């Protein structure tokens, strides 16, 4: 890559309009990450552990000085049914949403999605009592 093209690559907002085909090594699990197989032009997280780096303020701008590790903390579905991962930066706490990629680890995605159900904010032993307090009879209907 000549000097002129390299300079263009690092101009403000370059990755907003150009595909990012760069490979990298995940800072969390140490695996090599390539853009091939992602099903997108913008690979921004590890397909194995789903971690990312805090490099953007706005998607694709590469203007964040933080550089902290972004942990996957939740998943959500967009209007069209597409899944996205919510990342939280370990260093500054910023939250961001990233589309899942075609080669993301399905077991890791499901474990993140199931975490709130497995660790509710109340003791499961008291669910019948809590349901009664809400006006229900606290039992499962059997028809």
UniProtKB/TrEMBL annotation:
Q: List the InterPro entries.
A: RNHCP
Q: Which residues form the RNHCP domain?
A: 22-110
This chain's protein is named RNHCP domain-containing protein
Q: Which organism is it from?
A: Drancourtella massiliensis
């Amino acid at each position: 890559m000549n000097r002129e093209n390299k300079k263009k690559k690092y101009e403000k907002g370059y990755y907003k309009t150009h595909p990012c085909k760069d490979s990298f090594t995940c800072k969390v699990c140490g695996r090599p990450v390539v853009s091939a197989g992602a099903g997108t032009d913008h690979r921004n997280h590890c397909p194995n552990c789903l971690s990312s780096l805090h490099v953007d303020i706005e998607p694709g701008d590469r203007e964040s000085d933080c550089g902290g590790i972004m942990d996957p903390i939740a998943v959500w579905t967009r209007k069209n049914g597409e899944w996205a991962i919510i990342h939280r930066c370990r260093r500054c706490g910023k939250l961001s949403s990233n589309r899942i990629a075609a080669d993301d680890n399905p077991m890791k995605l499901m474990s993140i999605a199931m975490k709130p159900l497995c660790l509710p904010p109340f003791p499961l032993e008291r669910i019948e009592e809590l349901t009664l307090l809400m006006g229900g009879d606290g039992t499962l209907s059997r028809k």
